[in-house]
Amino acid sequence: MSQSKNALDKDLMFQKIMPSTSRSIQPDEDNEADTSLHSRIFAHSDEIASAMNGIHVINLMEEVVMQHLDDTITKFNCCRCDQCRSDIIAITLNELPPKYVVGEREHIEELVKQVPTKEILAALVHAVIQVRSHPRH
Ligand SMILES: [Zn+2]
Questions:
Q1: Residue 131: CB atoms within 10 Å
Q2: In angstroms, what is the span from residue 51 Cα to ligand 1's centroid?
C-alpha cells in the first residue's frame, strides 16, 4: 500500500476528527495493538502471580531448629511423640530471636545454610533436656 505524505496526513486528520472513521480505516492495526497490549498485561500479571505463589515468609530460626530436631531428640534419647516434639520446638524458638526473611524456597534454603547454628543447637539441646525431664504426659 503506497500512500503519498499528503494522503497519509489526510488520513491522520480524519482519524483525529472522526474516531469512527479511523476505526473502519485501520481495524486490523487497532485489533493487533489491543491484543498485544492485552497479552502483555496478561503475561505480566501471570508472572507476578507465580512469583507471589513462590514467595514465602520464613523464620530462619525455625528452619534450622526443624533440621536438627530429630537428630537432637535421638542423641538425647528423648520421647519423640507429637506432644514432646511440639514442646521442644516451642521452647527452643522462644529462646531465640526470630529471623524472618522473604523469598522463594531455593533462595531461603541458601540463607538457612548460612545461619550460624551454635546458639540454636544450644537452645535446642536445653529444650530437649527440659522436655525429657518433664514430659507433659
Ligand atoms: Zn512424648
A1: 24
A2: 40
Q: Provide the grid cell at 78.
A: 528423648
Q: Three-class SS of residue 4?
A: coil
Q: Cα of 86 to ligand 1 centre, how many Å?
A: 9
What is the predicted pLDDT for the residue at 25?
A: 53
Ligand 1 mean position to 113 CA, how many Å? 29
21-40 residue pLDDT tens = 545 555 555 555 556 666 66
Q: Are 100 and 62 in contact (CB under 8 A)?
A: no
Q: How many angstroms separate the alpha carbon of residue 88 from the centre of ligand 1?
A: 10
pLDDT, residue 21, reads 52
Tell me the whole-structure pTM to 2 decimals: 0.61
Say how many Å lie between the first and final Cα of the chain, rounded.
88
The rounded Å distance from CA 85 to ligand 1 centre is 7
